[in-house]
């Protein structure tokens, strides 16, 4: 069964990740977290429908979970039809969700007590890189478990081993802290520029060569907010969930995070206005409304 992989949670990220595993030649068994349509598309590509997490685990030497948050991971692993009820002893579980490191370490404890192995491997890169199999994968696990997980992970992107179980989630949350605050800084600065009468294209060109340059400013905002679109690239509510996990972890270890706390409130306000399923650039609408400007690149 070395080549058999199970995938639980084939949503916006999970479906293209599962498709990458099929392209790499793995015998794949899948089940839905909520929506069955991705399962049907993957079955058409050669996957097997495992019906539920227990059925997926029964057919797999390695089981991946990719679901919204820790309660869903818990249900997928330990619920009434959870994967642990179908898994053979020694099964390698890989959680690719973004959740609290505290929850991750508790899942590791429970799985190992039941005779299983565990790796946390959250990803970065969004759906575009998930489709090309070029995700950044941030791995927390023992050296032995990383070695066994690596062929599976390499089918979906580039694994980076950053320490023991839980450290994958810690480093992923570092990324989420940075992007959530950087997005707010970019939006605030460009709204200031527009209100002051600056040419946005000229401003972007100058800042692109200056110390304020950053990936979001140069690569994401020009094709989203500054082009007049908040179509989902990374849903605001998912980033808000990740920020909540980071803030919970920070409280547990005594790290003050006032900037991230404010960012969380801004994203929460935008979600409350109905933008939770939009891209997280939709937080810009608060700034535009308050300043009385629309911030756009030239057509």
Strand order across the largest sheet: 3-2-1-4-5-6
Question: Rg, please?
Answer: 20 Å
Oligomer state of the chains in this structure: single chain
**Highest CATH level, the class of the largest domain:** Alpha Beta
Order of helices and strands: EHEHEHEHEHEEHEHEHHHHHH
- What is the total number of structural domains? 2
Helical coverage, percent range: 40-55%
How confident is the prediction overall: mean pLDDT? 96
* Anisotropy-based shape: elongated
The CATH topology annotation of the largest domain reads as Rossmann fold
Question: What structural class is derived from the secondary structure elements?
Answer: alpha/beta
> Distance N terminus to C terminus?
54 Å
CATH homologous superfamily caption of the largest domain: NAD(P)-binding Rossmann-like Domain
Number of helices: 13
Based on the structure given, which CATH architecture of the largest domain is correct?
3-Layer(aba) Sandwich
Number of strands: 9
The profile of the biggest β sheet is: 6 strands, parallel
Provide the β-strand percentage band.
Answer: 5-15%
